[in-house]
Amino acid sequence: MSTPSTTGTTFPIRSVLVANRGEIARRVFRTARAMGMRTVAVFVDADTDAPFVREADTAVRLPDSYLNGEAIIEAATLTGADAIHPGYGFLSENAGFARAVTDAGMIWVGPSPEVIESMGDKITAKRVALDAGVSTLASSEDASADAEIGYPLLVKASAGGGGKGMRIVESADSLGESVAAAQREALNGFGDDRVFLERYVGRSRHVEIQVLGDSHGNVVHLGERECSIQRRHQKIIEESPSPVVDDAMRSAMGDAALDLARAMGYQSAGTVEFLVDDDTREFFFLEVNTRLQVEHPVTEEVTGIDLVREQLRIAAGEPLGYDQSAINWTGHSIEARLYAEDPKNDFLPATGTLVAYAPASDPKVRWDSGVVEGSAIGVDFDPMIAKVVAHGPTRVDAAGRLALALERLHLGGVTTNRDFLAATLRTPEFLAGDTTTDFIERVNPDGRASDSGNAVGETPSACIVAAMWIQSANRAGDDVWGHLPSNWRNGGFPSERVVFDYPGVEESITVSYRARRDGTFVLDSGDAVTIHRWSPSDIDIEINQCRFTAAVTRAGDTIHVQSGSTTMSMGIEPRFVIPGSELPAGGLIAPMPGVVLEVRCAAGDLVEAGQVLVVLEAMKMEHHISAPANGAVTDVLIAVGEQLENGALLLTIEDSE
Fold it and tell me: Which domains does the chain have, with CATH numbers?
């Protein structure tokens, strides 16, 4: 449906400050500008050069963090902002901040502080759901009530979300440590260390209902999103509609969500989350997210409703202007979250600089991104690079379009989950809708990632492209000899050669070539190569009668080549190797940048394989570093509170063997 244009706005919004960063700030700005509003950004030093700062009409530097509500309200006052939109995360579900915004005479773009307060506490939210007649999972605030809940169970933070402060516990042996770790994460992430126990349903789905409510008593739902494919209890692929929700189930879940929204007097956009038992199709209330969800674009794609526009209209006092009968759904939409992380290393966050970041112009998909080429991915914030959203007439169409868009993205400089996402979207299980919360462990898309494109079989071709691009780049930059034919000499000389290192390939790959008199090239392997066009960013090349254009980016001694279905990143071996220091034998290194929370060993300790020796914090999550084998700790090189870089040496272990 198309959202009606209404008049008689009670509180006209002329400018809006977004109390957030990255892609959600850019997303809100886009709609606000379309509605004729001026935009205001706030930023910290780490985001000085971020795209959202440049795109705002005005940007105000914060003294410390995005959690400083007082400074954000001062920025809004300074710039004359009429309203504050919190985006998601940070202060979006902070009732105190919402109250402070309205007390300062500004419009809060979100539900009332009272609703945020009640729904921000998962325990209170469960009570409200029960009072509204919505079924919930068995749970207890008593951390010693595990016998009543049964195993396996979940330890969950009472405040917040996003997988922080959540642990699956299989037996009583690990309950104590899981509760302690969840409490630390919850306190660090949300300022509240309360946790509770909840029944865990192994083969389940996360299905959520999008609701909209205004200040005139109108409330509608916009259908469901399925968000079952998760790692570390965080969503990475979301879609609408769900492949298992039929009309009857959609109606029942929608009615339950609306009953809850009416009971709360809900205003603004919100999401009611349910857990669906995949065997019985029973659904249970989980929580209410009193904010815009990261995955909201899939709902926008299938309904045609701009949720940010609706938030701003509702906050300004306008009625929705339509009822439930006006909501229509068209086609299917799928969103994939592109993260700087390593699927082969338990999805641990990665850092670096996006030396290459160029989405392909086709197929047409939606890119909601907070970064551009040259952006740095650091340890300060969530490592999401972009949300990539595809819409198609069918689910299979949308999945194929999204996979192809990911595969054709020219991307380099940071380890990402791109190949993992593309592989997931092309698995028979995903295409069949078999997408329960255990999908990643059960299907193992990472094991099929090479089949989706990042295959060793593509490496030789990518190396040829890289060698020919380097040859052309060298000639283009040579003002003295560049006008002569390549490899021109008075006499016979050996072939030109470039040596590449590719991760996953044990031996270096050498490309040796000679120039022919007609300007083409022949490789020592016998391959015939013609360069039809070269530029600093790509090359139009023909290899053995197969012609294509490949995007190419060189950053120092690394070159990134867009191959058939991924970006191949290869190291260029120098002709003369400079000796460097090596890690000591038995060295245990940091798998990511982070802060040392705990050191559970000392020099001289005997340790066993799998024993947790170090606990790191990165992106507000805890990561356990374990002993790779039995042995004795010979040296501990870190201390609690120390900030570590990726690959930093933590300690050394002498193998007992």
Answer: 15-109 (3.40.50.20), 138-199 (3.30.1490.20), 202-329 (3.30.470.20), 331-453 (3.30.470.20), 457-572 (3.30.700.30), 587-655 (2.40.50.100)
